[in-house]
Amino acid sequence: MGRQPCCDKLGVKKGPWTTEEDKKLINFILTNGQCCWRAVPKLAGLRRCGKSCRLRWTNYLRPDLKRGLLTEAEEQLVIDLHARLGNRWSKIASRLPGRTDNEIKNHWNTHIKKKLLKIGIDPVTHEPLNKQVSSQESSSAEENFPPKANNDEVLNSDENSSTSPAENSSSCEDSILMDSICSDESIINTLWFDETLLNDALWDIAPKADNINNNDVGLPNWEDNCAWLLECQDFGIHDFGINCFSEIELNALQQTIGVEEKRH
DNA sequence: AATTCAGTCAACCGCGGGGAC
DNA sequence: GGTCCCCGCGGTTGACTGAAT
Question: Which residue stretches belong to region Disordered (predicted)?
Answer without folding.
Answer: 130-171
